[in-house]
Design brief:
By secondary structure, the chain is an alpha+beta fold. Helices cover 29% and strands 25% of the residues.
Length: 154
Amino acid sequence: MRGGGRMPVGTAPTVELRMAPRPENLALARLALAGVGSLAGASDGDIADLKLAVTEACTNAILHAYGDGAAGDLVVRYRVGAGRVEVEVEDDGAGFDPDDPGARASEQGGEGMGLLIIRTLTDALEIDSDPSGSCIFFSKAVGGDAQGGARPAG
């Protein structure tokens, strides 16, 4: 594993999921995000955007980092603070060069669109990748919508 990215283990209030890189675990990542987003007072629209972004980031890791069936861990971290939800998806599979045009959107078969989708749905996106794995960090400001505002905590 690459070592915790921006959200090291033990920093409050970080929630960490460590799971096998399998498609059936996407539901767990999405459910955890919905809970964290709800606690943060995120609107239904913000939660939907973040769920799609975490699905794309995890799917990229499952398909590309572990595409050859290699064993490893997929780690997803969530943190709430100052009106935003932060998400980090980390793998210890094959890395990639995010500046390589071949790694970006390639219209063919819908492949390569994940990072573009994440960038569109979130306020910030950072990518750290090398041959030992990748870490994708993204965040979104939350706290209300035009149809009712933030949910009360509790």
